[in-house]
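The data layer described in this paper is built around a simple, fixed record for each protein. We quote a single record here, exactly as it is kept in our systems:
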Amino acid sequence: MEYTIRIGGQAGQGLVVVGSSLAKYFSRKGFQVFTHKDYMSRVRGGHNFYQIRLADHPISSSRDRVDILIAFDQETIERHRQYLSESGIIVYDSEESKKEFTGAEFVNIPAASIVEEMEVHKVMANSVIMGGVLALLGFNLKIYGEVIGDIIHKSDEVIETNIRAAQKGFDHVKENFSDRSSHELPDLEKKDQMFINGNQAIGLGALVSGCKFYAAYPMTPSTGIMNYLGSKAKKHRIVVEQAEDEISAINMTLGASFGGVRAMTGSSGGGFALMNEGLSLAAMTEIPVVIAEVQRPGPATGLPTRTEQGDLNYVLYAGHGEFPRAVFTPGTPEQAFHLTNKAFHLAEKYQIPVIIQSDQYLADSEWTFAKFDTDRLLWQDFRLRGDKLAETDNYRRHAYTENGITPLAIPGESKNLVVVDSDEHDEDGHIIEDAETRNKMVRKRLFLKLPQLQKEIEPPALYGAENPENILVCFGSCLGVVKEAMENLAADHSLAMLHFSEVFPFPLTDKFDYVELLTSARQAICIENNATGQFARLLRSETSFKCQVNINKYDGRPFTLDSLTGEINEYL
């Protein structure tokens, strides 16, 4: 069993409130839920929609087909009616759409008139609509109050009024559209499930990893990370700083990290461009830093509220000079949580920048999870503190060591002087010009650290057949939709998929020889949300393996299950 609901209209009409409320309701009822947003960059005007897919089995992508279309305006009906399933329903208010429809698929809920009769604020019309939709699906309003309370954060009186408005919509549907019982869904056992998006998962991963400082300038679609950490700042004693720009943000973050705390910054592609000098500064000074880069289509401002995987090459090679870094590309909120934790661990262990690369699709999509496995969390304090620092004589911030990693001291906590410089420097941190010291420092920072770092990188995850004739290859946020497409096609084809979530340094083959698997298959199909197949080229440059087929999407929208399944099937 599964169902898809799409809510369409303009910004400011309450789409997100309605969508989030329904999605949380379904999650608490025990359903598996996946949502995604499609919204304009304009504050007012332009068409937006919020889509919810719910099922009694695991799901991880959106579909084209719609079972209930909630239309807040006439344009929604015109745009999305074509996607309606055979028994689909369009919920609308004829007063708002300025037109009355007589088709069997239409359910007219006079929400505006109902709230006018109730003499309450017109925004409560959204609760009327939600009540009507829950009636169509055969649910009740028992947990509606707690859900709407979590969303709007208002007084008990306001929440009670919303519940009364929802009851009006519920009763209207029961009295006038009782023949739509074919849309009733089973009542599953109520569950305590996590309902979380990619940005929140990165923020949560930072929180459990001991992050105490986050600086950023708001930039869609990365701002949700700052919002999440800001909401937890007081309770967990985190400094969250809205900087005047991204240059300030990364430099503040480096200062905090140098001062002794775990620190992080984040932005989207345009903001990350401004951080490049700070990225190189982190490498030269060997200051640990974690950076979240949440992609949107470029170049320049591009499509600010859309999605793309077009920044992979950029984060791999950003920053002047040669230095080690790690790049993680999570495919689910759960992966985002754990990879953020691993990012802090490796940044501190190797004193390097680590980049978590997400995108608008993963950032804003919401998923249900039973829980995250906290037993897998990594925690080790790599700083030289307290008595160990006080007992250290002749401390040198960049002293040569066998593994290239110098003990990381905190300035001001002992008699030892901690010196760093953006110029090339000696072991004490003082500027140099001679060739011999330069060679030693490059060897320390790059050639000694990089092989160790590469051993920390996990190979791609394999799903499906163990010895397949056909292999689907993807990275990052494509995981969910590619995996579901693979499962849909596996009954008729020898098929598997490889998903890469740790892409730099590129994973070795000692734990899992994925290159041999690719080579032995009849064909490999690489699926990416960009125009030039950046991951396919990275795979070839690192392993010499070339995928026979590339499927690329670069219109600013994510892959949907139905269309991607059809496209893959053409090649199979």
The longest strand covers residues 2-10. The chain has a mean pLDDT of 94.
